[in-house]
Sequence to fold (303 residues):
Amino acid sequence: MGHRERLPPRAVAPGDVVAAYSEELGEWTAAQVTNLDPAGRTTGVLELDWSGPEPSSLADLGELRELTLTHHAHSGRLSYRNYEWLLPRGYKVLGNAPLLEDGKSNSYSGGWYIGDQLASQRRWDRGERITHHPGRRSFFGHELAELVARGEPLTELWNVSVDRIDAADGHDLAGLFPNAVRLRLAGNLGLLSGADGLNRLRKLRSLFVVDLFGMVAGDCLSTAAVPDLAQLELHSVPAEYAAAMKKVWVPEAANGTFVETVERDELFDALDAIVDYAEAEHGRAFAAAREQLAGGVNDVRDW
Fold:
């Protein structure tokens, strides 16, 4: 068993104020790190009520104020969550300040998307009741063919989610959404061909792929092509592709890239663990059940 790190890969400490650019705001924004949890590998992050040009020091932020949320169903709570403890690529530490909040948050989320809540709060304060930025949009897989046929890149979109994909091409996706910063692709046990085309998404910072197959090692994203990638999550994808991506991107944790993968081998390990537990609980073997589970997974997945 390997030891678990006591400190995150990028140096950060309670009290540190960090800043990052927010597409939602079109400006930089900031947050304060309140605590580190080595056991859970999480960081408490309290968003600040500030945005502006890129800051170079704490002084550029003025008096530090917590962001209080009153938009939609919020009733005055702080914008305060626990995130994975890796400070993302593109975030910088401005300095350390006395804690604005010393209690722990009970909320957890993935991805340090600071600025999203501040943008929603400011829209609400202006009397706007829309729930999302016009640069965000969701599609279904069957819509892709028509969009490709039109041949008109949707350059205004920076946050794109495509669900229920039966078949898609990475080069087509890059052509449709050339300014994608966040891209989520969810398959209907579908096929993603030409996945190497995603290397054309120079601005990409977050990629999530689930239940898509057909990708090979050569389709891996490169650090030269997508130098700002800060979050990579792969679930139920070909093991070859996941292994290649991990080989390239896990070492980038020191630069702020968070990687999470669940591929074929890990899925079968999980199934084995479930059957092992059942056998131990009932004191009997479930060989047939183990075989049927594995066979069922293979029947519905083209690995």
